[in-house]
Design brief:
Layout lengths: L1 H14 L10 H14 L15 H13 L12 H15 L5 E3 L2 E3 L1 H28 L4 H12 L14 H16 L1 H8 L19
Antiparallel strand pairs: 1-2
Helix pairs in contact: 1-2, 1-3, 3-6, 4-5, 5-6, 5-7, 6-7
């Protein structure tokens, strides 16, 4: 609900007097903003021209598509629970807590680590494919990023770029859709063999970070 209504509020604010919504009256603009926020959860429909939306709106929608839907659904993205666990972990760390808690329950440390791992792998993939698409396509960076985020989240939205993609660009988008569908963690586990645990334990070392 937070992602939907916050996204709708920003889209309405950014696009209210912009070309994408200039043909709509005020109530229709609010409805269109809500619809476009909801559709980033991987519905893939649009009631306004995505290609003429402001850069800020496209960037916001790319973030919403990257977060994606909830687990156990047909939607893509890193999933809403992954994003929520990361926020809870960051809040716990800033408060100096050793455990991540929510509603009087403790979230296991392996779940917290997995959430950050999924997000790191996903962000790396989207960044890598965006870079590759900038090499194959002569298009605005924001539109290329939008297409990559849409493909990863298996959303189906396009900033009017997909029809003009080169054959190599189409193959890149297809492969990213496939990765987004099976999940980045599943992909990582499939390409890297598990390390066998032995009886050897190494000493602890402190590394300066941040």
């Amino acid at each position: 609900l937070c992602l939907i209504f916050i996204g709708a509020a920003f889209i309405a604010f950014l696009e209210f007097d912009a070309p994408a919504m200039q043909h709509l009256n005020a109530p229709e603009k609010l409805m269109a903003a809500l619809f476009q926020s909801v559709t980033t959860r991987t519905a893939g429909f649009n009631t306004i021209d995505i290609g003429v939306m402001r850069t800020s709106s496209l960037f916001l929608m790319a973030i919403l598509m990257f977060i994606g839907a909830s687990p156990a659904s047909t939607g893509g993205g890193i999933k809403t629970t992954t994003f929520a666990v990361m926020l809870l972990a960051l809040d716990a760390q800033m408060q100096g807590k050793n455990e991540v808690t929510v509603y009087e329950r403790v979230i296991p440390s392996d779940v917290v680590l997995k959430s950050f791992l999924i997000t790191a792998i996903s962000a790396t993939l989207v960044a890598l494919y965006t870079f590759l698409l900038t090499l194959t396509e002569d298009q605005d960076l924001i539109k290329v990023l939008f297409e990559a985020a849409s493909a990863f989240g298996t959303v189906g939205l396009s900033a009017n770029l997909t029809p003009s993609l080169s054959p190599l660009g189409q193959l890149l988008i297809i492969s990213l859709m496939f990765i987004g569908r099976i999940g980045p963690l599943t992909l990582a586990l499939s390409v890297r063999a598990p390390v066998r645990r032995g009886d050897v334990r190494y000493p602890t070392t402190r590394v300066l970070v941040g």
